Amino acid sequence: MVVLPSCALVEVKMINSMRKVLALAALASAVPVTMAVAAEHRPVMQTEAWKTLQTLVGQWQGTVVEDGKEQVSHVQVRMTGGGSAMMHVMAEGTPFEMVTMFHPDLDDLLATHYCAAHNQPRMKLTSATPTRLVFEFKDGTNIGPHDGYMAGLTIDILDANHHDEEWSYLQDGKRSTSVFHYARAGTSPAP
């Protein structure tokens, strides 16, 4: 065991105290810088299509006909990333959960679909009206030559509480579609 003279112990305590003070000073000076950097971010482009898409924020319940059978579907839509992205979660908590992230890219509007087919197609808005948004395939990841992938999405906004989503799937040159009919949770299905 090393025994230090009392003056050395005082010096060690002073050094430890100074380290704490310097660490706190560094932390305190970083906070305004972080806040300043956050304040300097580019504002999110507020196109009419982006505003229309944001009206879908909320919980949705609906149906889709697959293989001749009507099936129940649930979607949760919420904003994230400081309002710079919108997350659309389909079949949350199931083995078939899929997420589509929508976000502006300067003047464009993109959708990246994280698919249960284990690929990630990106779609770009190609047509927009106040009640219809049409996205078409742009590119993607993990898509092999014969792999199927989502190639298009059309969203029809019927009113504040009802919308349809038509998802197009492309495999080996054949396109198939599934149409989901949604009502905002707590409202009646569309007539």
Helical amount among residues, as a percent range? 10-25%
Oligomer: single chain
CATH class of the largest domain: Mainly Beta
Task: Report the portion of residues in β strands.
Answer: over 45%
Q: Could you say what the CATH topology of the largest domain is called?
A: Lipocalin
Q: How many structural domains in the coordinates?
A: 2
DSSP summary: helix tally? 2
Main sheet: strands, sense, barrel: 10 strands, antiparallel, barrel
Name the structural class: alpha+beta
Cα radius of gyration in angstroms? 26 Å
Q: What's the CATH H-level superfamily name of the largest domain?
A: Calycin beta-barrel core domain
Give the overall average pLDDT: 86
- Element pattern in H and E: HHEEEEEEEEEE
Strands across the major sheet, in which order?
1-2-3-4-5-6-7-8-9-10
What is the count of β-strands?
Answer: 10
Shape, principal axes of CA atoms: globular
Distance between the termini: 85 Å
Proper CATH architecture of the largest domain? Beta Barrel
